[in-house]
Amino acid sequence: MKKIPFEQPSIESETAESLSAKLLQVSSQLMEANKELKRMELERREMLANISHDLRAPITAIRSATDYLTSGNVLSDEDYRSCLNLIDKRTRFLEEIIQDMYYLFCVEDTSKSLNLQTVDAAIFFEEYFYDAIVDTRYDNHDMKLEIANDLSIQIAIDIPRIVRVLDNLFTNAVKYSFPESSITLKVTQLPSENYILVSVIDNGIGIPKEAIPHIFNRTYTVSSARTPNSNTGSGLGLSIVKTIVERHEGNVFCESEEGKGSCFSFTLPCIK
Q1: Nearest-5° angle of CA 135, CA 136, CA 141?
Q2: CA-CA distance, 76 to 218, in Å (whole number)?
Q3: pLDDT number for residue 225
Q4: Spans in the chain with pLDDT lower than 70
Q5: Cα–Cα dist 239/100, whole Å
Q6: Which among 132, 198, 196 has a CA at the least distance from the CA of 170?
Q7: 235 vs 51: CA distance, rounded Å
Q8: Which of 182, 206, 244, 254 is the most buried (most CB within 10 A)?
Q9: What is the pLDDT of residue 234?
Q10: Do 241 and 105 form a contact (C-beta atoms < 8 A)?
Q11: How far apart, in whole angstroms, are the C-alpha atoms of residue 38 and residue 59?
């Protein structure tokens, strides 16, 4: 039988030290990934606990109003109107929470790609602003637009998603400011980066310094005592903003001072 010569595999040998270093690096990465998964799971549980708590109050109120209406007692027209108004208000609040939860879960699903369209940034934000100022929600506010006349930038965005970002930020500005106060939409190009900066600025009640790092978390809830109209909403609006912006490869942040107002900003990459 003919003897076949053994050929050394053409694979560069590695020292025990280099293999140990790689193993240590992989182990470190797995530990970090595990920490992130645990953090996300804890955040998910806290969010569900908060939402469960928020759902309990309106359901209890609706049940009490329904029991009162069906109690068999003689009720005045004012009693009927009061109960029906309560049921309507609480039902709308429940709808808002459920819709925001569903929307957040949808935008967090990265298996579903964004429907990106190329648009002129200045035209897109101008059109949004002029559509917004005819909305009755902003009737009692001084609406301002600041976009440079020479801004000529193309951006690729999922239009309904970015409209949702702006809606949430504008609604937030109204919620935490008083009538006759100003709300400004400002769009600029960052000089040293290939991004635009979009800001929604109000001169409302502002946010405590210690709360700012947490306001985009799904588990953060603002006390109703801090809102001029005592209406806090579902608490998921800013988390939705953060998720949508980050899926567009942008960042979102906030600057605020109590008693002076807030500036919520996000970046979007420009098309080169």
Answers
A1: 95
A2: 43
A3: 39
A4: 1-14, 39-40, 43-44, 46-51, 53, 218-235
A5: 10
A6: 132
A7: 9
A8: 244
A9: 54
A10: no
A11: 31
- Give the angle 191-130-160 at the CA atoms, nearest 5°: 75
- pTM here is 0.72
195 sits in which H/E element: strand 195-202
Q: How much is the pLDDT for 227?
A: 46
> Cβ(71)–Cβ(110) under 8 Å?
no
> Closest by alpha carbon to 55, among 20, 16, 96, 25?
96
Predicted confidence at residue 186, as pLDDT, reads 95
State residue 124's pLDDT score.
96
Chain segment 212-227, per-residue pLDDT in tens:
888 887 655 554 434 4
pLDDT of res. 43: 66
Give me the residues paired with residue 144 across strands.
Answer: 184
- Dist CA 48 CA 216 (whole Å): 16
- Go through 258-271 and write b for each residue having 16 or more CB atoms within 10 A of its CB, e for each that does not: eeebbbbbbbbebe
Angle between helices 77-108 and 237-247 (to 10 degrees): 20
> CA 139, 140, 143: angle at the middle one, nearest 5?
75
Neighbouring residues of 236: CB distance < 8 A, sequence distance ≥ 6: 97, 100, 101, 104, 218
Instruction: Confirm if 97 and 234 have CB atoms less than 8 A apart.
Output: yes
> pLDDT at position 90, please?
87
What per-residue confidence (pLDDT) applies to 228?
A: 45
pLDDT at 180: 84
- Calculate ∠ Cα 266-155-202, nearest 5°: 30
Torsion-angle region of residue 182: left (phi > 0), alpha (psi -120 to 50) or beta? beta
